[in-house]
Amino acid sequence: MPPLLPSPASLSTSPLLLASRLSSSSSRRPLTRFLAPTRTAAPGGSGFAAMSWLGKLGLGGGGSPRASEASAALAQGPDEDKPAPGNEFAQFGAGCFWGVELVFQRVPGVTRTEVGYSQGAFHDPTYEDVCTGATGHNEVVRVQYDPAACKFDDLLDSFWAKHDPTTPNRQGGDVGTQYRSGIYYYTPEQEKAALESVERQQKVLNRKIVTEILPAKRFYRAEEYHQQYLEKGGRFGFRQSAQKGCNDPIRCYG
């Protein structure tokens, strides 16, 4: 999604942005800033009092390597959420999750979609955190679907049609590790289908596919304003249809 002007309040409270300032300016590229809601403090004290966020990243600030390891272990754990009875989960990363979610909302047999962050090494990240590129998370859509009405292969077809799987860490003008192409499976059957689909796609593309295929990890639901963003009107207030089977062109930012 496109960079916006920074919010002074949000920049001053983001621990990962603070951590990035501690790094030598000669050893990193300038960070792209994004506008995101300011995180509110926890009742009774600072919003970050429970654990040093710099420590969670292994950058000092009163934390410990154990804190950093614990954060990574939580983030790298399996997705423990359960789909509705008779349904299954799948996760996909294919660039900015706003447009990707609308693609899957339109697929018949999909019963629920959520956007969020996964595959990183930092527990409970915010949008701000993920945008720094320091957490390793990908912007993903978790799709809940009824396998009696929608096959996993149907989801894969929508996934391949939505994006360019040959551009590492990039979709169009969106650049960063959070925009990488990925299929994150919950079952051996999904893994097998994903690997077979890559082979089929590679035969029709003239560049190497860079899509990662990995087990689904803990899913961190994104802030509410990201959910069904384009269906609700996006940036400009023009709602886009999420009706099943809709083929209207998707305006990625609304």
Helices and strands in order:
Blueprint: H1 8-13, H2 15-22, H3 53-56, H4 65-75, E1 88-94, H5 97-105, E2 110-118, H6 127-131, E3 138-145, H7 152-162, E4 170-171, E5 174-175, E6 181-185, H8 188-202, E7 212-215, E8 220-221
Parallel strand pairs: 6-7
Antiparallel strand pairs: 1-3, 1-6, 2-3, 2-8, 4-5
Poorly predicted tracts of residues:
3-62
Number of strands: 8
Shape: globular
Radius of gyration, rounded?
19 Å
Specify the helix fraction band. Answer: 25-40%
* CA(first)-CA(last) distance: 11 Å
Mean pLDDT reading: 82
How much beta, percentage-wise? Answer: 15-25%
- Assign the structural class, choosing from mainly alpha, mainly beta, alpha/beta, alpha+beta, or little secondary structure: alpha+beta
Overview of the structural elements:
The protein has 254 residues and is an alpha+beta fold. The protein is 27% helix and 15% strand. The chain contains 8 helices and 8 strands. Strands 7-6-1-3-2-8 form a 6-stranded mixed β-sheet, covered by helices on one side. Helix 7 packs across helix 8 (188-202). The longest helix is centred in the C-terminal third of the chain and has 15 residues, at 188-202. The chain is globular and about 50 Å long. Mean pLDDT is 82; it is low at 3-62.
Properties at a glance:
single chain; alpha+beta; two-stranded antiparallel sheet; 8 strands; disordered N terminus
Short description:
The protein is of the alpha+beta class. The chain has helices at residues 8-13, 15-22, 53-56, 65-75, 97-105, 127-131, 152-162, 188-202, and strands at residues 88-94, 110-118, 138-145, 170-171, 174-175, 181-185, 212-215, 220-221.
